[in-house]
TrEMBL record, chain A:
It is found in: Membrane. This is Sulfate ABC transporter permease subunit CysW. The gene is cysW. It comes from the Bacteria. Pfam families: BPD_transp_1. It comes from Virgisporangium aliadipatigenens.
Automatic annotation (TrEMBL), chain B:
This is ABC-type quaternary amine transporter. Residues 3-233 form the ABC transporter domain. Pfam families: ABC_tran, TOBE_3. InterPro entries: AAA+_ATPase (IPR003593), ABC_SmlMolc_Importer (IPR050093), ABC_transporter-like_ATP-bd (IPR003439), ABC_transporter-like_CS (IPR017871), Mo/tungstate-bd_C_term_dom (IPR008995), P-loop_NTPase (IPR027417), Sulph_transpt1 (IPR005666), TOBE-like (IPR024765). The lineage of its organism: Bacteria, Bacillati, Actinomycetota, Actinomycetes, Micromonosporales. It is an enzyme of class 7 (translocase). It comes from Virgisporangium aliadipatigenens. One of its GO terms (molecular function) is ABC-type sulfate transporter activity. The keyword Transferase does not apply. One of its GO terms (cellular component) is ATP-binding cassette (ABC) transporter complex. NCBIfam families: 3a0106s01. Its EC number is 7.6.2.9. SMART domains: AAA. PROSITE patterns: ABC_TRANSPORTER_1, ABC_TRANSPORTER_2.
């Protein structure tokens, strides 16, 4: 009796995923290779596009490093300690998911721009430019990817509990030793998933970076901005090829993790 | 005295977990903290270990004031109810953890780990992960890990609570024998009075954040300080105004004996080798429970509704029953009157 129903559900899900995700992504790949490898090699040899790809990776990696360190720290704070305002902090951490990235970009410009921002003029007078430069782009990327590590690590920390940490303390380990030898190995997979999600999100960030970077060709233009620029300039082949490379990196991250993750996590 | 606790108090919000507790735990013995859940015994153990801080009072371990010391400076071994095994480390590395932290030479660590794995009968499991061990084996590993650093005191928090009945009993015997070999001052928390009576040299009964009585298992069972201790340590029934153990009562059919309570058999239950007879007193009130051996029962030839008399056996221990909700009753010792 349940069988036809089960098959109906399966077909619905498969068709839905195909129309929404698989087919469009496939078309991007197909268009990227419409002229064979011509478009791919063209963007790789174009110095401006190559610079944009390199900048994307630099900004993404920096943002991921910052988000990982702060993410693990804030997760420990949220799970292991009680303090007033904890729920407010928890709600605040989800804000980057709900606020449009373009609003994030505008907000950062308001605070850090070199002429009228709160900190901008002071920072610029000591020779440190934030807006229209890499630091601002890293900040914008950190902001939009902020909750990803935390949302992966918090449930793992909660599940592991603090008994192992207490046992380590009673055996003579200090807080740093306990973290390095007990906590970190226990949350390892949560951190790795968080890093991969953050990296994929950071490489693909568009709105906030567009506002903050100023989109200067060969200087602050990232790969996503290149895709838009090429698309608007009727360079469809270049746009699809760049988009394909971006998608490829993100998919590669997810594939690598699903291969190296332990088949069945031992409880 | 190995552990000296004076005036320790602890609250969680408005809940009083420990209320001005003072206690001396002697060196080299096995002491049980016994009481119902939520009575404060685990909190006291965790305060001794430094895993919890007391709101007031002092803790001294082997003459050193440990009140403000973090757990890693107290040199105590702690064993958790749910083992707290380091899941990503082999059994050997688990046991070696404390020694590695103390940066002992490699060959010394190896020798000590071998010695301990031998002691807890896990030598052939050294390279396994904790997930590949049974509950009882994991707990023995946790014990070896705690003992590896030669702690001043060994603290066990409901160590057998998560194990099934048979393994629990085995480990209990094993812990007793282990303690006779190792002689480290040991404190363990339990809510199982049988476990405490069987294993401990000394029992501290804790209830509602206060110590009810301290004594040897015999003291506690034979001379309970109040009705709480009496009730907690074993089965009780009420005869008149006194609490008494059901096995300290005798049944007979002599209805003329003035020292007896007369009534009728209300219910007969057989539990393995013992027979439980509930007698409804003729004067009304709660039924009196009497336990008999099978032979005693057969000799009396009782049936439901048989008229019967209940009296205290000689040397029976009674405690005045406290009215419901009031403080503990006064202990009193009675030589059973009118013994035949």
């Amino acid at each position: 009796m349940g069988k036809p129903l089960k098959w109906t559900f399966r077909v619905v899900v498969v068709v839905y995923m195909f129309l929404l995700v698989a087919w469009p992504v496939f078309l991007v790949a197909k268009n990227a290779f419409a002229d064979g490898f011509a478009d791919i090699s063209a963007i790789l040899t174009d110095p401006d596009t190559a610079h944009a790809l390199r900048l994307t990776v630099i900004v993404g990696v920096q943002a991921v490093i910052i988000n990982t360190i702060f993410g693990v720290g804030i997760s420990l704070l949220l799970v292991r300690y009680d303090f007033p305002g904890k729920r407010l902090l928890s709600a605040l951490l989800d804000m980057p998911l709900s606020v449009s990235p373009i609003v994030v970009g505008l907000a950062l410009v308001l605070v850090y721009n070199g002429r009228t921002g709160w900190f901008g003029p002071a920072l610029e007078s000591v020779g440190y430019q934030v807006i229209f430069a890499t630091p601002g782009m890293v900040m914008a990327t950190v902001f939009v990817a902020l909750p990803l590590v935390i949302r992966e690590v918090v449930p793992v920390l909660e599940e592991v509990g603090d008994e192992q940490e207490q046992a380590a303390r009673s055996l003579g380990a200090g807080p740093v030793q306990t973290f390095r030898r007990i906590t970190l190995p226990a949350i390892k997979w949560g951190v790795i998933y968080g890093v991969v999600l953050s990296l994929a999100r950071s490489l693909g960030e568009f709105g906030a970076v567009k506002v903050v970077s100023g989109n200067v060709l060969g200087e602050t233009r990232t790969a996503t901005l290149v895709v838009e620029e090429k698309y608007l300039n009727f360079d469809k082949g270049g746009a699809y090829a760049t988009a394909f490379l971006l998608a490829l990196i993100a998919i590669a991250c997810i594939v690598v993790v699903s291969i190296i993750r332990p088949k069945e996590q031992v409880k | 005295m190995s552990i000296e606790i004076s005036g320790v108090g602890k609250r969680f919000g408005s809940f009083v977990a420990l209320d001005d507790v003072s206690l001396s735990i002697p060196s080299g013995r096995l002491t049980a903290l016994l009481g119902p859940s939520g009575g404060g015994k685990s909190t006291l153990l965790r305060i001794i270990a430094g895993l919890e801080t007391a709101d007031s009072g002092r803790v001294e371990i082997e003459g050193i004031d440990a009140t403000g010391l973090p757990p890693q400076k107290r040199n105590v071994g702690f064993v958790f109810q749910h083992y707290a095994a380091f899941k990503h480390m082999s059994v050997r590395r688990n046991v070696a953890f404390g020694l590695e932290i103390r940066k002992r030479p490699k060959d010394e660590i190896k020798a000590r780990v071998d010695e301990l794995l031998d002691l807890v009968h896990l030598s052939q499991f050294g390279d396994r992960l904790p997930a590949q061990l049974s509950g009882g084996q994991r707990q023995r590993m946790a014990l070896a890990r705690a003992l590896a650093v030669r702690p001043t005191v060994l603290l066990l928090d409901e160590p057998f609570g998560a194990l099934d009945a048979k393994v629990r009993k085995e480990l209990r015997d094993w812990l007793r024998r282990l303690h006779d070999e190792v002689h480290v001052t040991t404190v363990f928390v339990t809510h199982d009075q049988e476990e405490a009576l069987e294993v401990a040299d000394e029992i501290v009964v804790i209830n509602e954040g206060r110590i009810e009585q301290i004594g040897s298992p015999d003291d506690l069972y034979d001379k309970p300080a109040n009705d709480f201790v009496m009730r907690f340590l074993g089965p009780v029934t009420q005869l008149g105004d006194d609490l008494v153990r059901p096995h300290d009562l005798q049944l007979h059919t002599d209805s003329a004996d003035p020292a007896s309570v007369h009534g009728r058999v209300a219910r007969i239950t057989r539990i393995g080798f013992e027979i439980r007879v509930e007698v409804a007193p003729a004067s009304g009130g709660q039924p009196v429970v009497v336990t008999l051996t099978r032979n005693e029962f057969l000799a009396l030839g009782l049936d439901v509704d048989s008229p019967v008399s209940v009296r205290l056996s000689p040397a029976a221990q009674t405690v005045a029953a406290a009215p419901a909700g009031s403080a503990s009753g006064e202990a009193k010792s009675t030589a059973a009157a009118g013994a035949a």
